[in-house]
Design a protein that fits this description.
- The complex is a heterodimer of chains A (288) and B (187).
- Chain A is of the alpha+beta class and 288 residues long.
- Chain A has four helices and twelve strands; from the N terminus they run ααααββββββββββββ.
- In chain A, 31% of the residues lie in helices and 27% in strands.
- The mean pLDDT of chain A is 83.
- With 187 residues, chain B is mainly alpha-helical.
- Chain B is globular, with a radius of gyration of 16 Å.
- Chain B starts with a helix and ends in a 12-residue tail after the last helix.
- Classes of the chains: A alpha+beta (288), B mainly alpha (187).
Chain lengths: 288, 187
C-alpha cells in the first residue's frame, strides 16, 4: 500500500519544527521573518481601532492597546521605561529627604561634640513628668531623682540646647527651673553658627524678656557683629562647669535700640526648643 | 468543522483581543487581561474532531503570536504558536474526562490547558537567554514575574470564559462540528 509522502500529520510536524527554529533565531532574523505576517494581522485588525476608542472612552488612560506599527512595541517599552524613571525619581526624592534629615542630625551631633567635654560626665536621660505652667518660675518635673545621682545645681540639656538646672531633687523625681525664669541673668558668648574660627565670640549678659519666653540684651554697640542666626552659648561661671558651651538660644532680632538708635543694638534671643513642651531631657551628672 | 465559520469567529475574537484588552484589563503591578483567543482555542479543542483540534489551535496560536509581545523590536514567531500546539495535545488527552458542553468545563479547561500553554511560552522565551543557546534574552524579561502575571491572566480568562463559553456553546451548531469516527486516532 502506497502512503502519500505528504500527510497532514507530517506537515504539522514540519510546521512545529520550523516554529521551534524560528523561536530560537537571532532577534533580527526572527523579527524579519515575522514582519510580513505581523503587518498582515495588523492590517486586518484595523477595525479594532473602533473598539480601542470605545475602551479609551470608557477607561481613559488605562493600559496600552497592542500597536502593530513597526515601533509600536518600542512605544510601550518607552512608556514602561518612563514610568520606571518616575518611580526612580520619587525614590531619589525620598532618599534626599532622608539625607537632609540625617545631615541635620549629624550637624546637631557635631555641635554637641564641639561643645561638650564629656570626660567625667554622664548624660542621664529622663522623661518630663509635668510643667507647672508658671512663666515667672517655670519648673519641669523629671522622672529621675537622687537614685540616679541627680542633685541640686546640675544642668539639664536636650541635644545641644540648655534647658535649665535642677533646683530640688527627691528619691525618684526632681524639679528643674528653666533658663527662662524671670530672675535669670546669664553670661553668654555669641558666636557665628559656622564656627569658622575667624570671628571671636562676643561676651554678653542676657536677661529674660518681658514675654517670659525669650532673652534680650541691650549692651551691644550699634556696629557689633551680631546678626540674626548667631548662636548664644552659656559662659556663666555660676552654672555647672560642664554646661558651659551649651546653646541658650539663637539670635532672632538684632536691630537698632528704640531709645538709643545711634548707639546700641537691641538683641533678642530665643531658645531653639519650646522648653515647657519638652517630653525628654538629659541631666549632666558628674561621674564620681 | 466549518472552516469559514471558524475563520470569521477567529477574526472577531482577534478584534476583541486587540480592541477590548484596554477595557477589561486590570492594569496594576500584576497587569492581568483576559485572553479571548485562548478561550476560543479551548472551545475548539473541546468540541472539534480530533484531527481538526491541532490545526485549529495552531492557527489561533499563530494569530496570538503575531500580536505584539515581549520583544520590543518586533515579533518572534514560534513560542506562542508552539504553546497553543502543546495545549492542543493536552486538551485531546483531557477532554475525555469532562462534559464538553458545559461552561464550567470550558472555564476549568481554559485554566488548566492555559497553564500548559503559558509554561511552554515562558520556557521558549526564557530559552533565548540561555548561554548554551542563543544568549539573547528578551529585555526586561523575568521568567518568574512572567509566570505570575500569566497566572493572573489565566484566572481572569477562566472567569471571562463563563459568559463567552455560554455564547460559543450556543453557536456550536454553526461550527458544524462532526463527531469523531469510531477508532479515529488523535494526533
Amino acid at each position: 500500500m502506497n502512503r502519500p509522502p505528504i500527510t497532514p500529520k507530517r506537515v504539522l510536524i514540519a510546521i512545529a519544527v520550523l516554529l521551534l527554529l524560528s523561536s530560537q533565531l537571532p532577534t533580527g532574523a526572527a523579527t524579519a521573518i515575522a514582519s510580513i505576517p505581523r503587518a498582515f494581522v495588523g492590517f486586518i485588525s484595523k477595525p479594532a481601532a473602533m473598539l480601542q476608542r470605545m475602551s479609551a472612552t470608557l477607561r481613559p488612560g488605562r493600559g496600552y492597546a497592542p500597536d502593530f506599527s513597526p515601533d509600536g512595541d518600542l512605544a510601550e517599552q518607552l512608556a514602561y521605561t518612563k514610568q520606571q524613571l518616575i518611580d526612580a525619581k520619587a525614590y531619589i526624592s525620598t532618599l534626599e529627604q532622608d539625607i537632609a534629615r540625617l545631615r541635620n542630625i549629624s550637624e546637631s551631633l557635631g555641635q554637641i561634640d564641639a561643645i561638650i567635654d564629656l570626660e567625667g560626665i554622664k548624660l542621664v536621660g529622663s522623661p518630663v513628668l509635668g510643667f507647672n505652667g508658671d512663666l515667672e518660675n517655670p519648673i519641669l518635673t523629671l522622672g529621675v531623682g537622687t537614685n540616679k545621682g541627680i542633685r541640686e545645681g546640675l544642668a539639664v540639656v536636650w541635644g545641644a540646647g540648655l534647658v535649665g538646672r535642677v533646683v530640688s531633687a527627691s528619691q525618684q523625681t526632681s524639679d528643674v527651673q528653666l533658663i527662662t525664669a524671670a530672675d535669670n541673668k546669664i553670661q553668654v558668648r555669641i558666636a557665628k553658627p559656622n564656627r569658622d574660627g575667624l570671628t571671636e565670640p562676643l561676651p554678653a549678659f542676657i536677661r529674660v524678656g518681658d514675654d517670659g519666653r525669650s532673652f534680650v540684651t541691650e549692651d551691644f554697640a550699634l556696629d557689633a557683629p551680631v546678626e540674626t542666626g548667631d548662636l548664644v552659648h552659656l559662659a556663666d561661671g555660676s552654672w555647672q562647669s560642664r554646661a558651659r558651651g551649651f546653646i541658650v538660644g539663637v539670635v532672632t532680632e538684632a536691630n537698632a535700640h528704640e531709645s538709643r538708635p545711634y548707639l546700641n543694638k537691641y538683641v533678642v534671643i530665643r531658645p531653639r526648643l519650646p522648653l515647657p513642651t519638652l517630653t525628654q531631657v538629659a541631666v549632666l551628672v558628674p561621674v564620681d | 468543522m466549518n472552516w469559514l465559520v471558524f475563520a470569521i469567529v477567529s477574526y472577531l475574537f482577534l478584534l476583541m483581543q486587540v480592541g477590548l484588552t484596554p477595557l477589561f484589563g486590570v492594569f496594576d503591578a500584576q497587569g492581568a487581561s483576559p485572553n479571548f483567543l485562548l478561550i476560543l482555542a479551548v472551545f475548539i479543542g473541546l468540541s472539534a474532531q480530533s484531527k481538526t483540534v491541532a490545526w485549529g489551535m495552531l492557527t489561533l496560536g499563530i494569530l496570538a503570536n503575531l500580536i505584539p509581545g515581549p520583544e520590543p523590536t518586533g515579533t518572534i514567531l514560534g513560542p506562542v504558536a508552539l504553546g497553543y500546539l502543546a495545549g492542543a495535545f493536552a486538551i485531546l488527552q483531557l477532554r475525555t474526562l469532562v462534559f464538553r458542553e458545559s461552561v464550567v468545563s470550558l472555564s476549568i479547561m481554559v485554566f488548566l490547558v492555559g497553564i500548559i500553554i503559558q509554561l511552554v511560552i515562558v520556557m521558549l522565551y526564557t530559552g533565548r537567554g540561555l548561554p548554551l543557546l542563543l544568549n539573547e534574552p528578551i529585555p526586561n524579561w523575568n521568567a518568574i514575574d512572567e509566570l505570575f502575571q500569566r497566572f493572573w491572566e489565566l484566572l481572569y480568562s477562566a472567569i471571562a470564559a463563563v459568559p463567552l463559553g455560554f455564547i460559543l456553546i450556543r453557536l456550536q451548531r454553526i461550527f458544524n462540528f462532526t463527531p469523531n469516527p469510531r477508532g479515529a486516532r488523535s494526533y
